[in-house]
Amino acid sequence: MPLKDSGWWDDFFPAFRPYFGLISEKQTNAQVRYIMKKLNLKPGMKFLDCACGIGRISLPLAKKGVRVTGVDITQSYLDELSKRAKRKGLKINVARADMRRINYYSEFDADGNLGGSFGYFEKESDNRLVLKKMYRALKPGGKFMLHVINRDWIMANYQTRDWQKVADTKMMEERHFDYRTSTNYATWHIIKDGREESFNLSVRIYSFHELIAMFESVGFTDIEGYGSINDDPISRDSVMTYIFGSKPKGK
After folding, report:
1. 3-class DSSP state for residue 38?
2. How far is Cα 36 from Cα 115, in angstroms, rounded to an integer?
């Protein structure tokens, strides 16, 4: 699949790899059970994971018998995913692509954009295009899941900087929020072995009502959202949101 023009993600995500160590296997397994339940996934069904990263969700789904295709822009992530799948005796199709340029049509029983991999593009039309591509990839009657940070929580808990340590890597983030565009601008400082790298990035942050409108604009129906894997209502206390939409059976 064709790649789009380069962006902040090209250099940032290879350096960001240690962050995945903050997410426990217990958390991942709980999310996978939730995904299978909400998307009605059964062994043998086809699922598109875009962007898939290192396969945190793709691998457990494949282990449960789901036929997974993982798409990501970061080649090192796909290489790691393929190696891990091979070691586990799992089959996962992988493809390197810009999420705006995937070209699947009525192929998957369900698909997902998970882990906050949304809002990366400066043009609102490009972020909407991601949803449109995910919609097109679904079979009629298929279901999509968007897992993204909650703007209302961000506003209630906004900090201009914080830091965390994962193994031998320190990561500090300095932030500035543009209220006009609802965009978070950040500079990440990643320090390992005494060497520091800095990366500038921007992510458009969405409220639930904005996502409902975007879902509807590309054709999704039966749109619902939750603030946890326990199906709690979305509130400003919900760090992440889980938004679902269906492709009508007649489409």
Report:
1. helix
2. 16
135: CB partners within 8 A, 6+ apart? 144, 218, 219, 220, 245, 247
pLDDT over 60 at 32, yes or no: yes
Specify whether 130 is located in the same domain as 242.
Answer: yes
Residue in 130, 132, 58 with CA at minimum distance from that of residue 98: 130
- Check whether 7 has a pLDDT greater than 70: yes
Q: Is residue 3 part of a domain?
A: no
In a domain, residue 48? The reply is yes
Average pLDDT value for the chain: 94
Contact 81, 60 (CB under 8 A): no
Say if CB 138 and CB 108 are below 8 A apart.
Answer: yes
Considering the domain architecture, whether residues 77 and 165 belong to the same structural domain is answered as no
Q: Is pLDDT above 60 for 94?
A: yes
How do residues 174-203 score in pLDDT, each as one tens digit?
Answer: 999 999 999 999 999 999 888 999 999 999
Q: Which whole number is the average pLDDT over 37-57?
A: 97
Contacts of 117 (CB under 8 A, 6+ apart): 50, 51, 53, 99
Tally the domains of the chain. Answer: 2
Q: Is residue 35 part of a domain?
A: yes
